[in-house]
Automatic annotation (TrEMBL):
Gene Ontology molecular function: any one: sulfur dioxygenase activity
GO biological process: glutathione metabolic process; hydrogen sulfide metabolic process
UniProt superkingdom: Eukaryota
Metallo-beta-lactamase domain: residues covered: 112-306
Provenance organism: Parachaetomium inaequale
Protein name: Beta-lactamase hydrolase-like protein
Pfam families cross-referenced by the UniProt entry: Lactamase_B
Residue spans of biased composition, Polar residues class: 54-66
UniProt xrefs under InterPro entries: Metallo-B-lactamas, Mito_Persulfide_Diox, POD-like_MBL-fold, RibonucZ/Hydroxyglut_hydro
UniProt region (Disordered), positions on chain: 54-104
Length: 393
């Protein structure tokens, strides 16, 4: 007695079932669910025949070349047909894959900022993301060493820049967007537009008032104000804007292929997330933005805006996969609730010092990287608020 599973009925016999089926006297085959069936030896032979003589489907062109009978008692291969074998054309369907970008990541150790050059390898068209303008506060000197290194990379790679992209109005470094735009326009003969999220107007008006900057100096300085989920092209690459508020209200990320340039939302998993205590910042919004990023497939790379490597420790790392963040991000791994995150973030932000270049950064960055105008005295000046201790002033 042997039981035949439904698979065995379709020809997938087990090692135990096969001998009993080949040399049986009586076999009971039960194809569950259903009544048991009893087979006589002749029925079993028919079943054996049906199972063992079932041939895989053969390509019609190959069937055509098979002779109907083999020569008796012959070990020689049958002769090939006199007509030559004809290859039959066939078609296959492949889903076109979007090209993957070439990504250059450049770390500025002075401001712990990651800058990116994201290029379409087929057209050598590229976008710059969050470029840094050097500034030395002790001597109040602006310089372009870092931006010029980026220009060298663009030149050596033969790249044409289609966009200069800002993730937000940074408070910890000055953007080189305006400088790069002018330098690139001179070479390319076409000015690469500077893009930022459409809510930058809120940030410009808050800090324009705070620093006494005339709105004429920042209105219309950005060429592209991205709508949420807006799509753009960098050569043959497709980019998509992701609104990622929390650190600042205007904050966006840029998804290009399986890469998201997330600015200051997620940092390295050992660091967690960005602060939310700037005007318009929101820990709840950052939690939702982070979950939006972590809802992407696990293999997607999240390229961060900053890293803060410790001396003697591992080097700065530009990206971490979604899966790694979900497993071990210090602040927002899977399982951390919104209320837990908000409580942690608020408590942490209460003890953070102001960024070293806060005032200079904001006064340049709401102008898209333009410096303050030369005033009547022939100088460019930043406004720096003074904290007063004691009484009697
Ligand atoms: Fe920032």
């Amino acid at each position: 007695m042997a039981k035949l599973s439904p698979q065995a009925c379709l020809g997938a016999l087990t090692r135990q079932q096969a001998p009993a089926l080949f040399f049986p006297r009586l076999v009971t085959a039960s194809c569950t669910p259903g009544p048991e069936l009893s087979h006589t030896a002749s029925q079993t032979r028919r079943l054996h025949h049906q199972i063992c003589n079932t041939r895989p489907q053969t390509h019609p062109s190959r069937q055509a070349s098979r002779p109907s009978t083999l020569p008796p008692n012959s070990n020689q291969l049958p002769p090939l047909p006199s007509t030559p074998y004809t290859r039959h054309p066939y078609t296959t369907t492949t889903t076109p894959q979007p090209p993957s970008p070439t990504i250059h990541s450049l770390f500025d150790p002075q401001t712990s900022t990651w800058q990116y050059l994201v290029a379409d390898p087929s057209t050598h068209t590229a976008a710059i993301i969050d470029p840094v303008l050097d500034y030395t506060p002790t001597t109040r000197t602006v310089s372009t060493t870092t931006a010029d290194a980026l220009l060298s990379l663009i030149h050596s790679g033969g790249y044409t820049i289609s966009h200069i992209l800002e993730t937000h109005a940074h408070a910890d470094h000055l953007t080189a967007a305006f400088y790069l735009q002018r330098r690139l326009a001179a070479v390319q003969k076409v000015k690469p537009p500077v893009g930022i999220g459409r809510r930058i107007g809120q940030v410009q008006s808050v800090f324009g008032r705070r620093y006494g900057i005339d709105s004429e100096e920042y209105d219309g300085v950005f060429d592209l104000l991205w709508k949420d989920d807006e799509v753009f092209a960098v050569g043959g690459l497709s980019g998509e804007v992701m609104h990622l508020p929390g650190h600042t209200p205007d904050h966006v990320g840029y998804r290009i292929g399986d890469n998201v340039f997330c600015g200051d939302s997620l940092f390295h998993p050992t660091l967690g997330t960005a602060r939310c205590d700037f005007p318009g910042g929101s820990a709840q919004a950052l939690y939702q933005s982070a979950r939006k990023l972590l809802a992407l497939p696990d293999h997607v790379k999240i390229w961060t805006g900053h890293d803060y490597p410790v001396e003697g420790g591992p080097a700065a790392e530009p990206w971490t996969s979604v899966g790694e963040h979900r497993a071990r991000n210090k602040h927002i791994r899977d399982g951390v609730s919104e209320s837990e995150f908000v409580q942690m973030r608020r408590e942490r932000d209460r003890h953070l010092a102001a960024p070293r270049l806060l005032h200079e950064s904001l006064q340049v960055n709401i102008r898209a990287g333009q410096l303050p105008k030369v005033d009547e005295s022939g100088m460019r000046t930043f406004k720096l608020p003074v904290k007063v201790q004691g009484e009697g002033w």
